[in-house]
Automatic annotation (TrEMBL):
Binding site for [4Fe-4S] cluster: C87, C173, C266
Cofactor note: Binds 1 [4Fe-4S] cluster per subunit.
Organismal lineage: Bacteria, Pseudomonadati, Bacteroidota, Sphingobacteriia, Sphingobacteriales
Annotated source species: Sphingobacterium suaedae
Keyword annotations from UniProtKB, A to Z: 4Fe-4S, Cytoplasm, Iron, Iron-sulfur, Metal-binding, Pyridine nucleotide biosynthesis, Transferase
Domain of life: Bacteria
EC class name: transferase
Places the protein is found: Cytoplasm
Protein's pathway: Cofactor biosynthesis; NAD(+) biosynthesis; quinolinate from iminoaspartate: step 1/1
Transmembrane segments: none
Protein name from the UniProt record: Quinolinate synthase
Regions annotated as coiled coil: none
Cofactor entry: [4Fe-4S] cluster
UniProt cross-references to InterPro entries, sorted A to Z: NadA, NadA_sf, Quinolinate_synth_type2
UniProt binding sites for iminosuccinate: H25, S42, Y113, V114, N115, S130, H199, P200, E201, T216
Length: 310
């Protein structure tokens, strides 16, 4: 594309021309967050996708999020700036293997974390996100047997919070499993007044140290409302942009990973760029579409989630 082009202005122009809306997850690059019509966590983004009156949804996030938007708004065109923006957690649960797993527990209800393929959602009874997983499990009778997947860390966290005995699928997110307990402990010694906040996709021994555990929007809200001036943040680093914007005088420190070569960036989320966003709006490609029967089967468990979390 023409290197002199003003991408932000062109994206705004195309958005109006095509009656498009840009939905961005907190893990996107700052410049994408700044141009979005709505920035949020997975629950907020799916609520927006369900109620938008735009003709085109540009999903600045990863593939399963764009699929969820398509399932909730099947008549809309859903675009994803880079089709390769997948998710390690979603990849850790192939639907054909999950279907076999599920067969072993015929009397169990299936709750799946939204970070999974549409096919997997279609095999589920209720979908959940990190902000409503506890609420959804608690909305079910105590004697209800439950399979929870694909994230074993979130599953473990929900088990502890609710006291329920969930059958867990053994999946995880590559970004949230890299944090170093020892380095976090050292950092907390260095910043004794800092709060340590973590996403429930982190491992149990990391969550055990946290002052607050919650979804990305829950973490953001906590940093705004809490009186502390310093926060050590154990999740993908994109959220720090909104934290810093909301509280310019506070200090936000990304939690350190185990390996010096690692960082807290999600390689999938970070595949999207402003240039790809512009091109996808211009060409209306790549588009995320799904077979009608998958849309129909996957919509029920998502709608059940939205009803419970209203
Ligand atoms: P939430 O923003 O819903 O907390 O999800 C985090 C995540 O890992 C999305 O990929
Ligand atoms: Fe998937 Fe983890 Fe990236 Fe979220 S941060 S999209 S769960 S790989």
């Amino acid at each position: 594309i023409d290197p002199t082009i003003d991408l932000v202005a062109e994206i705004q122009r195309l958005k109006e021309e095509k009656n498009a809306v840009i939905l961005a997850h907190y893990y996107q690059d700052a410049e994408i967050q700044d141009i979005a019509d709505y920035i949020g966590d997975s629950l907020g983004l799916s609520q927006q996708a369900a109620k938008t009156d735009a003709d085109v949804i540009v999903f600045a996030g990863v593939h399963f999020m764009a699929e969820t938007a398509k399932i909730l708004s099947p008549s809309k065109k859903v675009l994803l700036p880079d089709l390769k923006a997948g998710c390690s957690l979603s990849d850790s649960c192939p639907p054909h293997l999950f279907a076999k797993f599920k067969e072993q527990y015929p009397d169990h209800l299936v709750i799946t974390y939204v970070n999974c393929t549409a096919e997997l959602k279609a095999l589920s009874d209720i979908v959940c996100t990190s902000s409503n997983a506890v609420q959804i499990v608690e909305s079910l009778p105590k004697e209800q047997k439950i399979i929870f997947g694909p994230d074993k860390n979130l599953g473990d966290y929900v088990k502890k919070k609710t006291g329920r005995d969930l059958v867990l699928w053994n999946g995880a997110c590559m970004v949230h499993e890299i944090f170093s307990q020892d380095k976090i402990t050292d950092l907390r010694r260095q910043f004794p007044d800092a709060r340590f906040i973590a996403h429930p996709e982190c491992e149990d021994h990391i969550l055990a140290q946290a002052d607050y555990v919650g979804s990305t929007s829950g973490m953001l809200k906590y940093t705004i409302e809490d009186r502390a001036q310093q926060f050590i943040v154990a999740t993908e680093s994109g959220i720090l942009h909104q934290m810093q914007k909301a509280s310019p005088t506070k200090l936000f420190i990304p939690a350190p990973p185990n390996n010096v070569c690692a960082c807290n960036d999600c390689p999938h989320m970070k595949l999207n760029t402003l240039e790809k966003l512009y091109k996808c709006l211009y060409y209306e490609l790549p588009e995320v579409d799904l077979p009608l029967d998958v849309i129909e089967r996957a919509r029920k468990p998502i709608e059940r989630m939205l009803e419970i979390s209203e």
